[in-house]
Design the sequence.
């Protein structure tokens, strides 16, 4: 042990409780300031350097390489969206997913733009599904379900037994009144 450490230990042993708390709070504040400064420096430099390298690389690529890179990215994005849709559809039984028929909703307008807009709208609406949680029985359009358990994220996070919004805890909402059924 060095002489400095020995002197500091003797000094610390003789200090009062208030002096010790003050010394430690100053040290903690100093350490926090140093850590925050380091984090700021790393956070500021890292993304900028990464983005600069990426921009430089993109500037040097040919038109064909750019098109290939963008087509790969688009394919990746399409695959992610399709996987997300499949996950939602797997959680909902087939008979509960009503599909809209386009012919019923398309009025005969002379303007093609209106018809195209309506077709797009109805196609989007036909992809929306209503998922129901197997624990709390809550359901609404676009509800995110945990694939393995068929539960909503709130019920999946609940680790208590019985689960808070479950039938065992007498929190089951019961049958849907006929006035509210679709």
Sequence:
């Amino acid at each position: 042990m060095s002489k400095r450490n020995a002197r500091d230990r003797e000094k610390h042993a003789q200090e009062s409780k208030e002096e010790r708390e003050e010394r430690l709070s100053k040290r903690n504040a100093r350490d926090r300031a140093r850590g925050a400064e380091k984090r700021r420096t790393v956070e500021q430099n890292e993304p900028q350097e990464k983005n600069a390298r990426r921009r430089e690389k993109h500037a040097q690529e040919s038109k064909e390489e750019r098109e290939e890179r963008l087509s790969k990215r688009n394919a990746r994005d399409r695959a992610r969206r399709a996987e997300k849709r499949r996950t939602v559809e797997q959680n909902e039984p087939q008979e509960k997913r009503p599909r809209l028929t386009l012919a019923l909703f398309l009025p005969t307008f002379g303007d093609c733009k209106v018809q195209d807009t309506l077709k797009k709208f109805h196609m989007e609406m036909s992809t929306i599904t209503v998922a129901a949680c197997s624990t709390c029985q809550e359901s609404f359009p676009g509800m995110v379900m945990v694939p393995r358990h068929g539960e909503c994220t709130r019920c999946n996070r609940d680790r208590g037994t019985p689960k808070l919004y479950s039938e065992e805890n007498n929190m089951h909402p019961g049958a849907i009144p006929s006035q509210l059924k679709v």
Observations:
- Residues 54 and 80 are 23 Å apart (CA to CA).
- The mean pLDDT is 79.
